[in-house]
Structures are given as structure tokens and as C-alpha cells.
Amino acid sequence: MQQSSASDRRQSVRSGVVWDGVRGVLGGEAFRDQQALIVDVGGGTGGFAVPLAELGHTVQVIDPSPDALASLDRRARERGVADRVSGRQGDLSDLSTLVAEADLVLCHGVLEMVDDPSASLAAIAGVLRPGGHLSLLVAQRHAAVVARAMAGHFAAARELLDGDAPAGRGGRRFTHDELVALLGTAGLRPEAVHAVRVFADLVPGSLLDLEAGATAALVELERAVATRPEYLPLATQLHVLAAR
Ligand SMILES: C[S@@+](CC[C@H](N)C(=O)[O-])C[C@H]1O[C@@H](n2cnc3c(N)ncnc32)[C@H](O)[C@@H]1O
């Protein structure tokens, strides 16, 4: 049996909850035995796009980085799904000119960096078919404040606290309530909110490397807390599935 690498193990802990949500949407009534048209905005090198194409769906990646798109192309060819994955250089703010329509839009780790999150969500809502879904993954503010304070960056933690300081190098951070309000303004209805990476970034990597079964147990623990509201403020990221 092939051994998974340390980076694969960490990735499975970080993205397990998000994958559960995305698979849930694709396994629902609308797509049973049917291909979905998926747009991955800021999809980068295809960490989601390529496995989704392997499930039989058609995926269009929009990303401003030519390097990321070259890696995406390589990965799609290596995995034999180049006919179902296309990459296009572009920005979320130009989505309506790049994409006609989509059943599912992934926007993972991008809203933090755009100039106008509200306009970006409206652009996504504009390309979703009626009944289509958005999978939105963003950095969560409270956990970022705690992380800065624990690293001794007290002034930076204080600046981040109320969310009105200019976005730093890592971009904006959002709270659950801010995100729900932004989605509502864009005409999108949140159906599920998940806490992502509640423990993953706190656990030393060596623990996963040394102890057999630790990765699977941590993935299970992340799953168990993902839908508990009391864990949302502790999560590094928030994942929202919203419907149009
Ligand atoms: C943090 S990475 C996330 C990659 C991928 N979505 C994932 O979850 O693994 C952010 C990606 O967004 C892209 N990006 C940055 N600004 C963007 C924008 N304004 N519109 C679309 N994509 C953007 C970057 O090139 C990068 O590939």
C-alpha cells in the first residue's frame, strides 16, 4: 500500500470538512447521475478542480496567476482529465465576462484579497444558475486574533480585533455574521456553515507523523466540531455553502 506523505496528511486534515460539504452538494438531488458545470474562482493549481473533474464534472478555473494555471494544466494532463478542466487567466471582479453560467462556484481563499467582497459575491451570484450553489471558504477573524496574540504580536492582534484596520499581507478576515450579511446582500442563502481547521493548525505536525492513526482521528474530530456553532470563532477558516 502506498504511504501518504506528511504534506498529504496535513492537507487531508485541513480540507476534509470542505470536501464533505462540496461532495454533499454534488451528491444531492440536482446532480445525481449528472455532470455539474463547476467554476473554481482562484482555483490556483487545481487542488479541488482536478479531483472534481476525476468525479466526472466539468471544471473551469479562473485565476490571475499564469504560473498556477500552468501547474493546473500539467496536473490535469497527468491525471487524465485535461478534457474536463480548463484554465483561464482572469480576476473574480471580471467573472461575468469570463463565465456564462455555473451549477457550482468554488471561491476558496480568494474573498480575503479582492477589493470589494460585496461586488465579488454579487458577480458570483450573477453566474449561478437558479438553484446553483456557492462553496465559499474564507479566513476567520477571531482565530487570527488569537494566533497573533499567541505569537507575541499583540499590536497586530489588537489591530485585527474590530476588522476595520486595512487588510494586511494575508488579506481580510471575516466573522460569521459579516459573511452571512454579505451573502444576503448578494442574494445568496447560506444553507450550511462549517468551522474549518479548528485544531489542525494547533497540532504539531510531528504528532501526525509519529502516531499511527492520528491523522484519521484528527480528521474525525474536525468533522465532529465543524457544525457546532460554539467552535466557529475558533476556526481558522469558515466554509459556507450558499444557494441562489
Ligand atoms: C490562497 S490561494 C487558494 C487556492 C485554491 N482556491 C485553494 O483553496 O487551494 C488564492 C488563489 O487566488 C488567486 N487570486 C488572487 N486574487 C484573485 C482575484 N482577484 N480573483 C481571482 N483569483 C485570485 C491566486 O492566484 C491564488 O491562486
Structure description:
- The protein has helices at residues 6-26, 49-54, 66-78, 95-98, 117-127, 141-150, 154-161, 176-185, 205-210, 214-226, and strands spanning 37-41, 58-63, 85-89, 102-108, 128-139, 189-196, 237-243.
- It is an alpha/beta fold and 244 residues long.
- The protein has one domain: Rossmann fold.
- Strands 3-2-1-4-5-7-6 form a 7-stranded mixed β-sheet, with helices on both faces.
- α6 runs antiparallel to α7 (154-161).
- The protein is globular.
- The mean pLDDT is 93.
- The chain binds S-adenosylmethionine (SAM).
- The site of S-adenosylmethionine has 16 residues, from loops.
- This is Class I SAM-dependent methyltransferase.
- Residues 39-135 form the Methyltransferase type domain.
- InterPro entries: Methyltransf_11, SAM-dependent_MTases_sf.
- One of its GO terms (biological process) is methylation.
- It is an enzyme of class 2 (transferase).
Concise overview:
With 244 residues, the chain is an alpha/beta fold.
Give short descriptive properties of this protein.
single chain; 7-stranded mixed β-sheet; globular; alpha/beta; 244 residues; binds S-adenosylmethionine; Rossmann fold
Distance separating the two termini: 43 Å
CATH architecture: 3-Layer(aba) Sandwich
Largest sheet: 7 strands, mixed
Order of helices and strands: HEHEHEHEHEHHHEHHE
The third-level CATH topology is Rossmann fold
User: Which percent band covers the strand fraction?
Assistant: 15-25%
Task: Give unreliable regions as ranges.
Answer: none
Helix and strand composition category: alpha/beta
**CATH homologous superfamily caption:** Vaccinia Virus protein VP39
Compute the CA-based radius of gyration.
18 Å
Would you report the number of β strands?
7
Helix content: 40-55%
What gross morphology would you assign?
Answer: globular
Average pLDDT works out at 93
**Which small molecules are bound?**
S-adenosylmethionine
Number of domains: 1
What is the CATH domain class?
A: Alpha Beta
Strand arrangement, major sheet: 3-2-1-4-5-7-6
Tally of separate helices: 10
